[in-house]
Amino acid sequence: MSDANIVEVTGLTKTYPGMARPAVDGIDLIIPQGRLFGLLGPNGAGKTTFLSMLCGLLAPGAGTLRVLGRDIRQHTQAVKRDLGLVPQDLALYPSLSARENLIFFGRIQGLRGATLRARVAECLAIAGLADVGERRADTFSGGLKRRLNLVIGLIHEPRLLVLDEPTVGIDPQSRHFIHETLRRLNREGMSIIYTTHYMEEAESLCDELAIIDHGKIIAQGSVDSLLQQHQDGAIEIRTQQAMPAALQEQVRTLPHTRAVAIDDHSLFLKSQQPESTLRATLTLLQQQHIGIASVSMGAIHLEEVFLALTGTRLRD
Amino acid sequence: MHATLHKLIAAVAKEMRVILRDREALLILFVMPVTFVLIMSLALQDAFSERAGIRFPLLIVDHDQGVIGERLMQHFGSDRAFNVTRLRADKGEAALPDTAQVQEDLRAGRYKFAFIVPAGASRAAARRMDQQLGLAPAGKPPATEVDIRLLADPTVRRDHRGLVISGLNRVLQGIESGMLLARYTQVTDRVRALGGPAGTAPRKPAKTLATFADITDAADSAAATSTPVPTSVQQNAPAWTLLAMFFLVIPLSVTLIKERQQGSLMRLQSMAVPPWVLLAGKTLPYFIINQIQVLLILLVGMYLLPRLGGDALHIGDAPGAIALLSMAASLAAIGYGLLVATFARTPEQATTFGATSVLIFAALGGVMVPKLVMPLALQQIANVSPLSWGLEGFLDIFVRAGGVREVLPEFLQLLAFAAACMTIAVLRFGHGLRHN
User: Fold this and answer.
1) What number is the average pLDDT over the span A142-164?
2) Backbone angles phi, psi at A293, to 5 degrees
3) Partners of B117 in beta bridges
């Protein structure tokens, strides 16, 4: 393994007993040091299983998994010392104050004395909680709790920070605060792995992404390269009136065209012959007297890439 | 190792802080048992200890209708400690109860004591007296000692039974002395009337007159329990302490499930800390709390209860045995709490199942109703309850003056229960981790 890689995965597989299909199915992945790396995937895609193995919570079934330069199987404790996990849930003690929470997790991570006190003060400052450090966490708003949840993962200054959907259910200000904090930590050299269901968040925050589905990595690269790979032949039309179901079905059956996402007021299509597809679609809309709000070709967002790759079928 | 110890101390300190801030848990763990011990010890004091001011209901079943029944009635009827009912055939009683019926009345609590005076007892006593004095006509078969039976409620304390036996023996000795004096007077008067020399007396009697059969606790209180009966506080203090100790099942399992649900457990497991430190950090505080509970309730029983008019708790002379039993009971309770936590999916499930199962254990184990008043079959079933083992152990120390050796069986039973629960819990805990 190269020292430049913080995570190196080869043929990683995990099958739960009694399950026919592996939850993680032969993943190969390299995450260079210093990246803010996004891991995306629909529910049940294998993200949590992968992260659990990465954090030493679950033993890998087959393949190799090296984290921070060490084999996770042989050096679990050493890896854990340099890794910080920020779970999706608020993994803190509501009846303890913010300071007490940080002191406890700091001591569990092996910090003591002046070092611990300094780190607690620093983390409270990072989270903007210095003024409310003595307040019990159960008196905090959702945003304050999320910020505390984040800095608990930073208390021991990990080299790698793993965040599992850390901005669920909070206001835009707190989300912005967390994003800025992560960008700053990343600039200062911390490697970050970030999972989220908010595509615009991943698009704006991460410099590299992997999309996982059915236990496999189905796409990987920088945000720009992923967008570029999928923008050719992309058509997006927004309508003024709702499109009837019959019309939506007609669009779906246009030749050389794949409907990625269609709802009452928007069409997102991929076509091998985009110009003829656009013409045919506009004709159909005109025949049904559906007004057009906007048309774009070749411009694409991460959400469309994600849906194009993972489909629109609802997941459990 | 030093670093691990530091982490363990941090985990214990955190858990203690969390518990101390949980008012509901503190109510369950401390206020509830102290309140129960005070209320139950005072409320059941009379039922357990028959104190001064309380009158023992006493039944005299008089088949004899002679002097013995009269004298028993005179003696015990004038004693304020007894409320005497005398059943006599000549008083219109259709049929006097037999021994089995009397025992049933005693078990049901209608009477605490019963004397059964057999038919012809007074005449038999006179014959026996004459025989011992050599006044009986020749050729008559030897008269046996007259057997006045004493039966007692199984829950009556041995010392109270002893007092009644002693009183009964005194009455019978008085009857015997009276009969002896009367016969002497009768004989000397007759001799004098016949012109015989003054001072002529009947044959010298046996050194010890034995007109009545001895009334002893072992022989005559067949219905009474052979083991000492605890006082109210001796029963209630350890009983409710054990219930409180086992009630930690609720806060322990709920906090474990919440940590699992909230992700704190996952976060802790992602840190460089051995799993045993996490488990010990979670359980040690409850072990400490259990020991404080025991100490607190013993002190309440010893010093507060007497001030409120109750009996003081006498804890015997084996503090080492108390400590051993207390530790084993705590481990059993913690083991059971971990087991409930691994099987329950939600705090609500843990609370409902934990509380219900502990209450069943308590009811079976003699916490609410002392085992000694349970039917024999239920007493056998009660032996499956860990609270029964703990309670029997404490009663061994408090009531039966037992020490470490005497409580060893209960100690080992509790430890085995703890080990079994913890093993299953750890196996399921590990299984759950691998599959979550």
Assistant:
1) 93
2) -90, -40
3) B62
Please write the tens of the pLDDT for every residue from A181-197: 999 999 999 999 999 88
Degrees (nearest 5) of the Cα angle A301, A306, A310?
155
What are the backbone angles phi and psi of residue B88, rounded to the nearest 5°? -125, 140
- How many Cβ atoms from other residues are within 10 Å of residue A244's Cβ? 12
Average pLDDT over every residue of B201-230: 58
CB contact under 8 A, B270 and A55: yes
Task: Report yes or no on whether pTM surpasses 0.80.
Answer: no
Alpha helices in A28-112 (DSSP H): 47-54, 76-81, 98-108
Please provide the distance, in angstroms rounded to a whole number, between the alpha carbons at the two ends of chain B. Answer: 30
Pairwise CA distance, residues A157 & A148, whole Å:
15
**Chain B residue at shortest CA distance from A92:** B264
DSSP B301: I
Phi, psi of A26 (to 5 degrees): 70, 50
**Proportion of chain B above pLDDT 70, given as a percent:** 85
Confidence of residue B30 (pLDDT cuts 50, 70, 90): confident
Interface of B with A (CB under 8 A): 3, 6-7, 10-11, 13-14, 17-18, 21-22, 261-264, 266-273, 433-435
Q: Of how many residues is chain B composed?
A: 436
Q: Do A85 and B17 count as a contact with CB atoms less than 8 A apart? A: no
CB A23 within 8 Å of CB A15? yes
Q: If you write DSSP's letter for every residue of B58-105 in order, what string do you get?
A: EEEEESS-SHHHHHHHHHHHT-TTEEEEEEEGGGT-SS---HHHHHHH
In B206-314, which ranges are continuous DSSP H helix? 217-220, 232-246, 249-262, 264-269, 275-299, 305-307
Listed in sequence order, the residues at least 6 apart from B101 whose beta carbon sits closer than 8 Å to its beta carbon are none
Beta strand A234-239 with A292-297 is antiparallel
- What is the helix (H) or strand (E) element at residue A85, kind and residue range? strand A83-86
Complex ipTM value: 0.80
Mean pLDDT of chain B: 82
Measured CA to CA, the distance from residue A16 to residue A49 in angstroms comes to 10
Least confident of B166-175, B328-337, B417-426: B166-175
Smallest CA–CA separation between A51 and chain B, in Å? 11
Query: Taking the CA of residue B80 as centre, how many other CA atoms within 13 Å lie in the half-sphere pointing to its CB?
Result: 4
Coil, helix or strand at residue B240: helix
* Contact assessment for residue B110 and residue B188, using Cβ atoms and an 8 Å cutoff: no
Angle at CA of residue B94, ends B93 and B100, nearest 5°: 90
Q: Of B269, B277, B167, nearest to B215 (Cα)?
A: B167
Q: Which of A6, A23, A9 is nearest to A216 (CA)?
A: A23
The answer to whether the Cβ–Cβ distance between B14 and A96 falls below 8 Å is yes
User: Mean pLDDT throughout B222-244?
Assistant: 74
B14 Cβ contact list (under 8 Å, min separation 6): A93, A96, A100, A104, B281
Sign of CA dihedral B333, B334, B337, B338: negative
Q: Do B262 and A89 touch (CB under 8 A)?
A: yes
